[in-house]
Amino acid sequence: MITSGQKSNRSQEPRSPRKILITGGAGFIGSNFVHHWHETYLSDRIVVLDALTYAGNLNNLKDLNGSSQFRFVQGDICDRPLLDQILAEESIDTIAHFAAESHVDRSILGPDAFVRTNVVGTFTLLESFRQHWLGRGKPKDDRFLHVSTDEVYGSLSENDLAFSETTPYAPNSPYSASKAGSDHLVRSYFHTYGMPTLITNCSNNYGPYHFPEKLVPLTCINILMGKPLPIYGDGQNIRDWLYVGDHCKAIDCVIHCAPPGETYNIGGNNEVKNIDLVAMLCDLMDELAIDLPVHPARQLITFVKDRPGHDHRYAIDATKIRTELGWTPSVTVDEGLRHTVQWYLTHPEWWQPLLSPAYQDYYKTVYA
Ligand code: NAD
Ligand code: TYD
After folding, report:
1. 0.85 exceeded by pTM
2. Ligand 1 atom nearest to 175, measured from its CA
3. What is the distance between the alpha carbons of residues 29 and 33, in angstroms, rounded to a whole number?
């Protein structure tokens, strides 16, 4: 939903329902976005395409079962005939493209899947949508929004200014390099073909439905299980944290209000050192959880070998989206983390099945 204070073109003219394809809609941010869109735009058709990799989870979407406005398709964004079929069958006019391999540590262990899905998959989706858009006479309200990351800009030192939309790309991990490649392809489809593409580059998200390999959910779940909380290196690395619901509202705002061809940085202006973030989560768990196996939870903090090529600091300058489109985050990091901790405490049925033997094997490989 576009919150009060955000500029909206919908106040001047009635909004026509959209037929939106959400790729990666069974993942963390994608599923939050599906819920946001479904609750906000009751007349819209929502089609989710997701390969259901280890990170995709149909439980994230179970609230939508039975909705006549919603369809789930299990499939791969590299599968061109499938893409062509869905776009035609559903007369799709809007794509929100979340599908990706998203975890930096996994990209270090095995970059192949990252190049395949993030680069080749995005290219395949762009080509399919281009043919579909051309065939329908290039409708001016169509949109292809590509969801990307601030990691494409590389690493900042403590004294550098935050990333703006004109910061040169300098990706350092196979993950960020593959996202940078996909950003360039999306940009080229606007400049070469006039296709109505948009790119958003967002900082680290946290919130419900976050797969427990990322720092925030891993910390919450390990505290509940009394397991060590691994902090890479000295824990002084800085990330700029944004509550996932605010990210979803920003993407909504860009789809509805931004001119095609634009790029927007999205961030919460919440720079926190990793060690401080984990300490905050420990304190929240001490306060909110009953009968923790280890109390106070800070005793579980364990410094481990650093991630190779670990970027020191990310920080987003979100001036452009604030001044041009009127988006600002609505959730403070204190509120967002409290809500997130409460969500993991009250949803063990969501995260316990994810702690499978395969997950445990992966966990041992990374934290050996
Ligand atoms: P995620 O790993 O939780 O979800 C990715 C989803 O994509 C999964 O459901 C998975 O099954 C699906 N998928 C993977 N490969 C696919 C393929 N070949 N075809 C179809 N579906 C496939 O990721 P996330 O954290 O929700 O991130 C979503 C997007 O947002 C990504 O593009 C990521 O780069 C970007 N992003 C993430 C963050 C963050 O903090 N998590 C920040 C900024 C940008
Ligand atoms: P992560 O959640 O993997 O996101 P990203 O690498 O995309 O920023 O990691 C966030 C930060 O936390 C990053 O600096 C790496 C660090 N980290 C740890 O210290 N320990 C962990 O167990 C994990 C998963 C991450």
Report:
1. yes
2. 34
3. 6
